[in-house]
Amino acid sequence: MSQADWESEFLKYKSSPEFAMLNSRMTLDEFKSIYWMEWIHRIWGRAIGITFLLPAIYFTARGRMTKSLTLKVWGIAGLIGFQGFLGWWMVKSGLKDDLFAPGSTPRVSQYRLTAHLGAAFVVYLSMLWNGLTTLRDNRFQTHLTHQEAQASLQAFRNPALRTFKLATLSLFALTFVTAMSGALVAGLDAGLIYNEFPYMGLGLTPPKSELFDTFYSHVPANDKGEHTDLVWRNMFENPSLVQLDHRLMATTTFTAVMALFAWSRSSAHLQKILPANAKRAVHGVFGFAWLQVILGISTLLYLVPVPLASAHQAGALALLSWTMVLGSRVHMSRASIKTLEYFAKHGRLGTRNVAIHQNVAVAEAAQKVQKALGAKVRQPQSANASQRVVGQSGVTPAAV
Ligand code: HEM
Question: Given CB 3.0 to 4.6 Å as the disulfide criterion, which of 159, 216, 228, 243 pairs with 190?
């Protein structure tokens, strides 16, 4: 951009509440650095959209995905678009004229920031879940032996594993809510008060009068002198209570992870039925929970430096990812169970399916050669379609 362009952009920023009330001494060079950060974030977001969209169009057009996977992929594409809208909606909240009013803080709405972060997490986690389950199902279809299929089926039908699966799902939900409570802390800059741990001022919690302050209520007191919105307004808008909430949620999540770890280690029955990769995933969740709590406390003690706060944000994603990895190793979709049942019943299909894959590859190569030679050959639409035909009708791989 030319100097004149920069000056013009800076002029626009100067009319914002953030400049007027927080950054009125900002120089053009300092403005350039926050401008680049914002610009890169937007370009990066668009690049993610295109990187996802182009392969999605290609694989859909070539019929390379099952119907259910196609729906999921387009659901994620929709979510990415929605994420862009949420970003715009969030930024808009930081430009409102009423932020110039005395007593207000010029920043984006903490609700919209939480929605934006939450949607980003949902997009990423949906991609991860679909990736993990697709890879696993593919492994079933290519590598599982008859005995392994039978053993897996037995393990997945075990009621104790069902309880463990439920515990993992609850832990995942708890961690997600904790992360969202962290976004509220970030949105209100609530990490810049009570920079100590475990104390908050003189006690473990600030006084009740500070936690439930009528200042945050928008509703006049009723006949009994009560403000009906007092509790929820303070929970979401009062930095002291928002920080305390995050501490409580984080402590609960951490305790839950430790309990899951202790249970998986101490129960002889679970030790027997948990798949080996699930045991490894429990260790991953255990490690990331420790890391996340250490990062959170450090972020607080050091007054929220950007590198630590970013590492803490990434840590939340790592913890959620590992909990999801654990989930994918103890959960089995109905379709996967059906595949397992089929393998367990018909025996040695694992090995046979490797042959099917090889046959499809060979057939496709042959088709290319024949096309080049001008000959017309009848060929399956896709590798998936040919596998399905083979899997269902029992046609031998050679027939492909
Ligand atoms: C399981 C445990 C935890 C999870 C999943 C978690 C998650 C998060 C997330 C996602 C954010 C928002 C980051 C951002 O958008 O910038 C956040 C912010 C924050 N968390 Fe945690 N957190 C946990 C534990 C803790 C603990 C134990 C503390 C300290 C007592 C803590 C202190 C903070 C602070 C101060 C912020 C605000 C950082 C900022 O302003 O950028 N967190 N947390």
Answer: 243
